[in-house]
């Protein structure tokens, strides 16, 4: 499986990444438009921000903007563990066919 410590680190760093991104977007909206326009836009805001990481056949993690090096390294490690776990599960499924 995937070590709990790694899962905890991925969860923590992902939450930190999203928090940092949302704070920055909020600060930019206030700085550029003022508080009056922010209230008017609340209903039209997409509160979820996402990014797509692809590990195979070619990783795109270097192309995703706004990720720090520590987070990129952690996600590479996590993707490698998921790949290994997937292969083990497929092997077990094949044995039972």
Automatic annotation (TrEMBL):
<dbReference type="InterPro" id="IPR027443">
    <property type="entry name" value="IPNS-like_sf"/>
</dbReference>
<keyword id="KW-0560">Oxidoreductase</keyword>
<protein>
    <submittedName>
        <fullName>1-aminocyclopropane-1-carboxylate oxidase 4</fullName>
        <ecNumber>1.14.17.4</ecNumber>
    </submittedName>
</protein>
<dbReference type="GO" id="GO:0009815">
    <property type="term" value="F:1-aminocyclopropane-1-carboxylate oxidase activity"/>
</dbReference>
């Amino acid at each position: 499986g995937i070590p709990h410590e790694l899962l905890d680190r991925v969860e923590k760093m992902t939450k930190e990444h999203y928090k940092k991104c949302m704070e920055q977007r909020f600060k930019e909206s206030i700085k550029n438009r003022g508080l009056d326009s922010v209230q008017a836009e609340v209903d039209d805001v997409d509160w979820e921000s996402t990014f797509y990481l692809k590990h195979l056949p070619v990783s795109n993690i270097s192309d995703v903007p706004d990720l720090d090096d520590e987070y990129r390294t952690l996600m590479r490690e996590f993707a490698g563990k998921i790949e290994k776990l997937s292969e083990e599960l497929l092997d077990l499924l094949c044995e039972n066919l």
